[in-house]
């Protein structure tokens, strides 16, 4: 059945009970329409296009009607043009070549005497104009912008926006016409003109500067709108033309950005709008929101910014979730401008944490963390911990991290810091990141006066709950390290009764953790290690025997790591004379002190800020590489300069990882082919010779022999290789009691290095070593150039090297370089040294060796 009217087709489609019936009806109608197009049936063209557009709206193919739409648009009848242009906008886009056939029709209609036909052409051009069509019809649109007809003028302005977006170079053609639109009294023309100017200002900085002169005109229009009485034509729920007000405010925000003069011109009207706009309805709230954004993004007065933040505070009390969400998002962006003004609304922000809408809770949470500072850290952290207890699972990982970071940054004292992290571990221990757990462990090791308090708190917490993984890991580690303090510390309070903690109580707790349902492989590894450490902390033989039996039970575990630990720890019971030393307490983790010490050491120089900045990024690749080799500093080294001891002399950049590998393996030229630079077995053995061995000339201790036996006895205790003729570990004899001791380190090819050590007067844990470079011209043959001196220390120490006073030494002259070594463990100072230089007689020289010539215990 064929439907000759659109109304009949709609009824037939709506009467279909299934999709198959609907498709059948549309297929028949589409076939009829195609046949009609082929037959050039002019009388049915209008009806066919209308039916085809309805079919297109339902999602069925209608592309075969594109040419017919163009024919309809070329018709002299207004009704045909209207439907033809509508079909063109729906069925065509700017990328289709067929669109070029429309250019001539559009050009004719833009010059038509009927304003409604001109409006149809402008509307079509503004929707589907391509870059080529924009260039062809730009002059017609520019001419229509100067029309006296308001209807044509506002449509031409909107069409000009499309042209500018497609061809930005054409915007200069519209600047003059757009400026004249601001003087029009018709709100429609003014609205479209301001929209055009906004688009042009965003596209070009030069245009923006040109239109800044129009700020007084815009202010005048906005003032008229605010102070105008009731106008039925423009009134929207009691507000005069809110759409125009918002457009003006948005343009003022763009023009006033980073411009003090323009901002001063609009301050008064912004205050007037903020104070006089009714906020009980959405229309007023939209204007207030635009006003707030304009104030925040322009260099406004502080009083205006406080007013804007107060408006956002009022938004937070609104029942509409959308308004509250907008307020929280804007406060998050503006907190950097005036944090004190935002702090006044802290209570209502915290109330939003309990809102039913998850999006509002998320934004309120972000804002709450941004508000934390030294003065309110206790209050805000307490509220955030209360929210953490009831928070959604997706919030907990980020919340635990941010609370721990805030506590670390703003903690009023160490005890509060520890209590806060403990509370986080109790409430959401399964969501605490590994970095935060490590930070807490570091805090405990660094705070010796709080170790007894912390180990008791963790013991109590584990007695109550072992389901939180991070809490259990932290508790097991701390109890393993400080179990003797727990037992020796006396009692803890439970239900107002003091209870003693015995060695058996601690072991019982560890057993319950191992037998619990929450024990995984990592936790079992922690517990086994902690139990083994407790054997050196507890004095009762029965406790050690009980731990030994537990370890024997794990020696057949199917988990390789656990089995290996159990077997090694069980064998360690055979060596009671060295077991306390092997299981001694972990050294104080120096990461934070390293940063502080680095700042103190660098305070006199120019590198302090760079050291602090690099420390925030954690250990570098060079640090990790040196740790792997066993000759670097600890994992908390602040930067590569400290870890490798490579000075940043003028003109020399830090060595990259390839340079470092070349240095370690004795290579001097990284540009050489890989085959030439590959180290031999002899080079590797020479590189690691002496690391971890006693100083030259000192006999190995029995403890060292026992450890070698424990590891299987396959390692011979051979003495360290003798130093080469160039390097020496012998101290030079002193000539008097008041003379500083000097230690010759290197002497070869006329180039010599002498160390003069001295303890730092401000910090006894730091030794200052002045390295003096000397040039014997009679041997070297003249000046020595390209001097590079590198050093590395053992893991228990940290090294910082100042730049050398010169990297070239004339004959008979000297140069110096200061080395600072932090040695909190008081271990023997041992240095791995590398010297690179060039002499006239010997050419390039590259030497690698080790120095351990300081008297034991002296530094």
Automatic annotation (TrEMBL):
SMART domains: Alpha_adaptinC2. Its main location: membrane. InterPro entries: Adaptor_Complx_Large_Subunit (IPR050840), AP1_complex_gsu (IPR017107), ARM-like (IPR011989), ARM-type_fold (IPR016024), Clathrin/coatomer_adapt-like_N (IPR002553), Clathrin_a/b/g-adaptin_app_Ig (IPR008152), Clathrin_app_Ig-like_sf (IPR013041), GAE_dom (IPR008153). Signal peptide: none annotated. One of its GO terms (biological process) is vesicle-mediated transport. PROSITE patterns: GAE. SUPFAM superfamilies: ARM repeat (SSF48371), Clathrin adaptor appendage domain (SSF49348). It comes from the Eukaryota. GO terms for cellular component: AP-1 adaptor complex; cytosol. Residues 738-855 form the GAE domain. Gene3D superfamilies: 2.60.40.1230, Leucine-rich Repeat Variant. It is found in: Cytoplasmic vesicle membrane; Golgi apparatus. Pfam families: Adaptin_N, Alpha_adaptinC2. Residues 638-657 are annotated as: Disordered. Keywords: Cytoplasmic vesicle, Golgi apparatus, Membrane, Protein transport, Transport. Belongs to the adaptor complexes large subunit family. Adaptor protein complex 1 (AP-1) is a heterotetramer composed of two large adaptins (gamma-type subunit APL4 and beta-type subunit APL2), a medium adaptin (mu-type subunit APM1) and a small adaptin (sigma-type subunit APS1). AP-1 interacts with clathrin. This is AP-1 complex subunit gamma. The gene is APL4.
